Fold these 2 entries.
Entry 1:
Amino acid sequence: MKIEQIISDAAGRAVKALYGIDVAPGTTTPQKTKKEFEGNLTLVVFPFLKASHKAPEATAQEIGEYLLANEPAVAAFNVIKGFLNLVIAPSFWSEMLHHIDDDANFGIRKASADAPLIMIEYSSPNTNKPLHLGHVRNNLLGYSLSEILKANGNRVVKTNIVNDRGIHICKSMLAWQKWGNGITPEKAGKKGDHLIGDFYVLFDKHYKQELKELQEQGMTPEEAEAASPLMQEARAMLRKWEAGDPEVRSMWEMMNNWVYAGFDETYRRLGVDFDKIYYESQTYLEGKEKVLEGLEKGIMYRKEDGSVWADLTAEGLDHKLLLRSDGTSVYMTQDIGTAKLRFKDYPIDKMIYVVGNEQNYHFQVLSILLDKLGFKWGKDLVHFSYGMVELPEGKMKSREGTVVDADDLMDEMIATARETSAELGKLDGCTAEEAEEISRIVGLGALKYFILKVDPRKNMTFNPKESIDFNGNTGPFIQYTHARICSVMRKAAEAGIDYRQEERGNTDLSEKEISLIQHLADFPAVVAEAGRIYSPSLIANYVYDLAKEYNQFYHDYSILREENATVRAFRLMLSANVAKVIKTGMGLLGIEVPDRM
Ligand code: ARG
């Protein structure tokens, strides 16, 4: 148990014994003692004065004496006005460290068979272009959130809904048909998602040219859009697709498969995965059905032109279109259908959608509609809404010049990590493969950490150069700290030292050592809080503080050169557990940590 909890419980018993009152939970929670005073934890006694009928000093004195006599973790105390500063017994700290050391999965709770089942949807790309920087933030958040929720004892299903049908993919298909000359990813030597993205861009180029020409002939922009032969062709293709035209369907399937092969590679490199992938082409008809069901139950209504709507004015929103007059579905319809399948496949208790904040309104509406349609998790669905991410001005524009491609970004990060690590001599003595592996781990670690340490709701700028600085609040700094500890442990092993075999009983702990143990002991509470408020950044910043604190300790104290074997073993144990918690914490962020670098 955490020391804060132990003291809080003991203080509750003290107040009960001394003044006969039951205190509200939370009123006895101690704080860390301020640096200028002696002690580790401080209780504020003001809430108990009414019951004690004594001055703050006298009340604190009384409670302090009670704790000293009855709580073995308390070794001494002092009183400053209404503040009771408690010195925790050194033996308590070393026991705490042993307890942490004994638990290989410290901080992680295992899910029981009847634990809540949470589905997280993340990534969810369209199939007309490759993944970009926005998707990177999405994927990192979704993956980390899944790991954090798992670590809190939940069962988690990771899903992805691929929007694989619609006008966007028809545009790429049409452009490929017209100007592709039968090119394939193999022939082009290109990833399939990139190839399709190129055709999407090509469509747009020709379409814009068409619009320009039509307007030069005297049409208004609206008229030009309506008259554009290319757009008409794309729409015709979509109708053919909906009608199940074999030729269009087989081209669609072939091209989507190219895209999936490309996505898979990006996901693999990024280190994210899914338990179940949904495809819009398989869910949108279910959505249509569900909407018609709602129509029968009077939850939806039909307009004269045949379109189907939901009236959300009672909820303070407006009217929402669900089926067009020609019977085709909209984005929302698909989400209703997917919801039905999700629930059919898994008896989920909670649904979390990781989707950018430009879709806040969509999810507000979806929640209301699902609730009306009888989904028990609809009302409390979580839209994990995150902000935009950009690169600093002038950095690495992708081939289209607008968005930053995910694959290019990863290449760039790994290349930068290779250069920086080589410059700092961190790759000296490595084989070529080792150097490559370290560069990969460091490059991706820099990218992931920089994005995840930020509050997800905030818009942010990803700064590649800053992210890879070995001395800042960065992934590489933390990774390096881990590698440094591993190196100490290797040297200890080479010298034949196994801290677990040494005699226990180092009670002469320094402030820095106690503070590090206290920091380690906080980890489970940080994991719990990160799960409660859905916050990978809480974990990121915790791990950074831990690494920073360890580095100060490492700088100030000798470990292997310490002559007292008990003290040396204690410091090795402390180091090993800092490394363990760093590794677990970074694992919750989806970031690998190297053993050497
Ligand atoms: N594919 C969509 C887009 O790129 C995002 C899908 C989000 N998820 C959902 N269930 N609507 O905008």
Entry 2:
Amino acid sequence: MKIGFGSDHGGYNLKCEIIEHLAKKGIDCIDFGADDAVQSVDYPIYGQRVAEAVAAKDVDCGIVCCGTGIGISLAANKVPGIRCAVVSDTFSAKMSKAHNNANMLSLGERVLGRGLALEIVDAWLETEFEGGRHQKRVDLISAVEEKYNK
Ligand code: RB5
């Protein structure tokens, strides 16, 4: 599995912790920046980069981090085909995959401790989309996107 990563300065340290955790499991982790926690940078740039890699299928899915997880997810969700879920608990992490087929996960470094963040990542990666009635609803999300992207 190949996962794209992105963060701003506010999510940089958490991103590095997640990459270290997943690399130990043999997962191919591609980091689209930012490159440190010191230089103040703009989260939309990194949300867009990862989202475009996911949409292009250059990576299987994306994980992004900023201070809250909110700003970078909002930017990612502007890229057609992206369903980026901001999550702060393991139940929502599982549901975002099982019911919403989220192809990106967004986490807030200033919200979550390391232990919970890694549990959320594992829960999200281990959960499969259930399909069935949920596929129709995901298709309806795509239909909203198509209506406004004409
Ligand atoms: C940066 O200070 C902060 O605004 C950013 O990391 C994020 O929390 C935005 O949603």
